[in-house]
Amino acid sequence: MQRNALVSAVALAAAVTGLMSLTGTAQAQDSYHWKMVTSWPKNFPGVGQGPERLAKLVDEMSDGRLTIDVYGAGQLVPGFEVFDAVSEGTAEMGHSASYYWKGKVPAAQFFAAVPFGMNAQEMNAWLQYGGGMDLWNEVYEPFGVEVMVAGASGVQMGGWYNKEINSVADLEGLKMRMPGLGGEVMNRMGVAIVNMPGGEIFTSLQSGAIDATEWIGPYNDLAFGLYQAADYYYYPGWHEPTVMFEAIVNQQAMESLPADLQAILRSAVADVNQSVLDEYTARNNDALKTLVEEHDVVLKRFPDDVLAKAKELSAQVVSELAASDPMAKKIYDSYSTFQDKVENYHAISEQAYYNARNPEGDTTQD
Ligand code: CA
Questions:
Q1: Over the stretch 60-84, which tens digit does the pLDDT of each residue have?
Q2: Predicted local confidence at residue 22, as pLDDT
Q3: Sign for the pseudo-dihedral over CA of 95, 97, 98, 104
Q4: Taking the complete model, does pTM exceed 0.85, yes or no?
Q5: pLDDT digits 0-9 by tens, 253-264
Q6: How far is 101 from 28, CA to CA, in rounded Å?
């Protein structure tokens, strides 16, 4: 009896120890602490709130098993080095926009913003249900990076000018900050394009180093105080009918996560994709009112001939990009085929509805 009791006690102790070590091992393997680098100032309104929301959601949904520290531009790596940092594994993940990587992968620009291209609703449709996400991942795959769409600005504003623009000729000789394909179009209209990070825009415009700039839309432009440096605020942002933001993840880091944490991460990114756009849609309204009513900003629509010329040159610039390499061609074909279809349908749905709802259209024209 005594011997049996001893054996039982030893067995029980062994079982408990085994259980404890099992639990201990599981916990150690099951906790992940990630870094997310971004191209935005820390906590920047709109786009900078996306990564913060993402980290909070992932923490809550995983009960703390996956935690993510969010770094603003320059805190861990410069804003334009986010892609390299994720590719190399310096950070497990990043939040940015794909047109910043045009020097490395020109074709990536199709996924951020195309002048006279698709808006946020249409881009989400193409990316999620029209083959766009597969192509985007194909472009990043050689860099060991997985991508998810993670927010949209919606249609942006045309930008801030220190004088009235009444014709294409009025653009000639201006110095302007405008990135991406839109900047190339402006360049072909006689504008000298200057590239600079967001943080330098205000002082450059105020000092006269540049005559004009685009940034995002009323919400972010108000936050930067751009109304203090230029009087004329033009629309529409033909150059950026939206910018789609990206969440990029180092492939090895992604594969190291158990399936449930991967699902949590994807689900949180999908949430952020919608919420960034919703925040812009909500905040731009009040910000525009403040700009016009409190800061006496002169709100103007681009003249028809400027828009027509920009559209003509945009088609040139985009087809030149498509001709530059086979991957760009493949993406362009998919993008433009989808845009043709969605434009046809939206002509009799979204567009027809907007026209019916508000037949007078905008009221800022003389
Ligand atoms: Ca912009």
A1: 999 999 999 999 999 999 999 999 9
A2: 47
A3: negative
A4: yes
A5: 999 999 999 999
A6: 36
Residue 222 and residue 148: Cα distance in Å, rounded?
Answer: 29
Fold of 28-152+243-281: D-Maltodextrin-Binding Protein; domain 2 (3.40.190)
pLDDT for the residue 127? 98
Tell how far the Cα of 216 is from the centroid of ligand 1, in angstroms. Answer: 4
Q: How far is the CA of 18 from the centre of ligand 1 (A)?
A: 58
CA of 140 relative to ligand 1 center, distance in Å = 23
CA of 160 to the centre of ligand 1 (A): 11
Q: How far is the CA of 119 from the centre of ligand 1 (A)?
A: 13
Q: What is the pLDDT of residue 197?
A: 72
pLDDT in tens, 275-319: 999 999 999 999 999 999 999 999 999 999 999 999 999 999 999
Cα 135 to middle of ligand 1, angstroms: 23
Distances in whole angstroms, Cα of residue 251 to Cα of each of 60, 95, 137, 269, 292 = 23, 15, 11, 16, 46
CA of 241 to the centre of ligand 1 (A): 9
Ligand 1 midpoint to CA 264 (Å): 30
pLDDT at 165 over 80: yes
pLDDT of residue 329: 97
Give Cα 75 to chain centroid, integer Å. Answer: 19
Q: How far is the CA of 235 from the centre of ligand 1 (A)?
A: 12
The pair of three-digit structure tokens given for residue 138, joined into one six-digit string:
């194909």
Q: For the chain, what are the domain ranges?
A: 1-27, 28-152+243-281, 159-241+283-325
Interval between CA 243 and ligand 1 midpoint (Å): 7
In the block, residue with structure tokens 């493949």? 330
CATH of span 159-241+283-325: 3.40.190.10
CA–centroid distance, 77 to ligand 1, in Å, is 22
